[in-house]
Write a structure and sequence with these properties.
single chain; Metal Transport, Frataxin, Chain A; 3 helices; about 35% strand; globular
């Protein structure tokens, strides 16, 4: 499972985004683009998919910023 911003996989990120009403818009290469509303604004989030590898913390922080969802919600996700 997840521990803070470490050990998140692409599948866990996608599951979290879908639970927060984001939908797959399109994909290009190994990146999947999700769109959804957060705080009344339309947002697009790029999620890299490289198998079962963990996403690096800096990349996850960028995804969190793109989504506009509060970081506390991300870190409390099980």
């Amino acid at each position: 499972m997840t521990r803070g911003i470490f050990n998140w996989t692409s599948e866990e990120i996608v599951r979290f985004l879908k639970e927060n009403n984001f939908q797959l818009s399109h994909s290009k290469g190994s990146h999947f683009y999700y769109i959804g509303k957060s705080n009344g604004e339309l947002r697009q989030v790029a999620v890299p998919f490289h198998g079962a590898k963990a996403i690096k913390p800096r990349t996850l922080n960028g995804i969190i910023r793109q989504s506009g969802i509060d970081k506390k919600n991300w870190l409390n996700y099980q």
